[in-house]
């Protein structure tokens, strides 16, 4: 079925002219520009891709069944996310297997639904530094002795990503094994020194998880993990743009220093997202949410309660252009996951995963695979 979005300004286009985007089924078939500036005031970007999401609307990925994952995916789509990685915190192998089966089932049935499409799974912190655990549960951390990566439950198909600390026992060999198995290896929950970080980078780990958080910071005599990521060419990072995990001034500084070409926006959202303030049971302890800030019983921030669209609004408030934000929210995540041939930008031949904004930067429409999302559902 052929459909069209007319008279919108494309964030990625250098032309100031209005565009009409035509999609046939789930694929963008053509983009045509008019001769005058867009008069509707509407802007169009590629759908957001969230590579780090633990849940929302009261549902935790670690505890979810397929129906629960569907509820998260519906919420995400209403907030502009068209693809996501359900993200697991450290847990028992038995529960890993159960959730992987639920994600597999989700991926079998989701294609015909206008919901955020799960494109894989992200294991956060299976091999992490206990001294940088943050809100993660160290009792479930693993050591790498050779076979642990291969034994992690895998999806039938899709992207497999893990966040790890390269200084753990066997950490560099772990990177090599992850790359051999086709995983995206991301550095995080770490206090690795520069030599270890360089070795991990050489072995194939070139991305860093939730920049500044759960890692050593920058000092003028010790660059730390954060300084290494900022100054090492070829390294990218993702960052939580909620204004709480990272001070807005530091958020602005880091993203401009690294450049939007090398930064990803993530939500790192947890189950209470969308429910407002309160106290919630999460990962075996009480998590409080006060004025949008999470805190566990140990005093650590326990993920965020923002959406990717909240992150987009934050970056707009800091003066980043919609073109730069689309790079961070859509293009770069697709590239990290090696899905950029099929999604992540508004181009003919790619998936019709689209978000339309009004002049107030509110979401007017979301299209997932050519299908309209019911924003009032």
Walk me through this protein's architecture.
The protein is of the alpha/beta class. It has one domain: TIM Barrel (Alpha-Beta Barrel). Helix content is 26%, strand content 28%. It contains 9 helices and 21 strands. The protein has helices at 66-78, 93-109, 148-151, 171-180, 194-203, 224-231, 248-258, 308-317, 322-336, and strands at 2-10, 17-24, 27-37, 43-46, 48-53, 55-56, 59-60, 81-88, 117-118, 120-127, 159-164, 184-187, 207-208, 236-240, 263-266, 278-282, 285-290, 293-295, 354-357, 363-368, 371-372. Strands 5, 8, 9, 10, 11, 12, 13, 14 and 15 form a 9-stranded parallel sheet that branches. It starts with a strand and ends in a 5-residue tail after the last strand. The model has no long low-confidence stretch (mean pLDDT 94).
List keywords for this structure.
377 residues; alpha/beta; TIM Barrel; nine-stranded parallel β-sheet; seven-stranded mixed β-sheet
Q: Give the averaged pLDDT, no decimals.
A: 94
SSE string, helices as H and strands as E: EEEEEEEHEHEEHEHEHEHEHEEEEHHEEE
Highest CATH level, the class:
Alpha Beta
Largest sheet composition: 9 strands, parallel
Strand content: 25-35%
| Cα-to-Cα separation, first versus last residue | 23 Å
Instruction: Tell me the CATH superfamily.
Output: Metal-dependent hydrolases
Question: What is the domain tally?
Answer: 1
Rg over alpha carbons: 20 Å
DSSP E strands, number:
21
Under the CATH scheme, the architecture is: Alpha-Beta Barrel
Low-confidence stretches: none
CATH topology: TIM Barrel
């Amino acid at each position: 079925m052929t459909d069209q979005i007319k008279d919108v300004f494309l964030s990625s286009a250098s032309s100031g002219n209005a565009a009409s985007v035509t999609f046939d089924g789930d694929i963008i078939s053509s983009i045509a520009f008019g001769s005058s500036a867009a008069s509707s005031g509407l802007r169009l970007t590629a759908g957001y891709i969230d590579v780090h999401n633990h849940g929302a609307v009261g549902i935790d990925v670690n505890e979810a069944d397929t129906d629960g994952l569907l509820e998260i995916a519906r919420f995400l789509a209403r907030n502009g996310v068209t693809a996501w990685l359900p993200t697991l915190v450290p847990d028992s192998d038995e529960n890993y297997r159960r959730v992987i089966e639920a994600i597999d089932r989700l991926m079998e049935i989701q294609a015909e639904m206008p919901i955020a499409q799960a494109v894989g799974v992200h294991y956060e912190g299976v091999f992490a530094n206990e001294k940088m655990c943050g809100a993660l549960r160290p009792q479930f951390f693993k050591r790498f002795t050779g076979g642990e990566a291969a034994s992690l439950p895998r999806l039938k198909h899709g992207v497999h990503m893990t966040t790890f600390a390269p200084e753990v026992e066997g950490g560099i060999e772990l990177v090599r094994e992850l790359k051999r198995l086709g995983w995206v290896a991301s550095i995080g929950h770490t206090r690795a020194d520069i030599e270890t970080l360089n070795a991990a980078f050489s072995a194939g780990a070139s991305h860093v998880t939730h920049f500044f958080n759960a890692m050593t910071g920058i000092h003028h005599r010790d660059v730390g993990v954060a300084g290494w990521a900022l100054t090492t060419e070829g390294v990218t990072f993702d960052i939580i743009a909620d204004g709480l995990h990272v001070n807005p001034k530091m958020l602005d500084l880091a993203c401009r220093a690294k450049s939007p070409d090398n930064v990803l926006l993530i939500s790192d959202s947890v189950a209470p997202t969308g429910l407002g303030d309160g106290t919630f049971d999460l990962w075996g302890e009480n998590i409080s949410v006060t004025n949008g800030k999470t805190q566990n019983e140990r005093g650590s921030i326990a993920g965020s309660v923002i959406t990717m669209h909240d992150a987009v609004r934050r970056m707009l408030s800091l003066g980043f252009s919609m073109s730069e934000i689309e790079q961070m929210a859509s293009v770069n995540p697709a590239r990290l996951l090696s899905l950029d041939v099929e999604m992540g930008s508004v181009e003919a031949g790619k998936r019709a995963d689209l978000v339309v904004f009004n002049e107030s930067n509110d979401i007017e429409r979301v299209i997932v695979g050519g299908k309209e999302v019911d924003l009032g559902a």
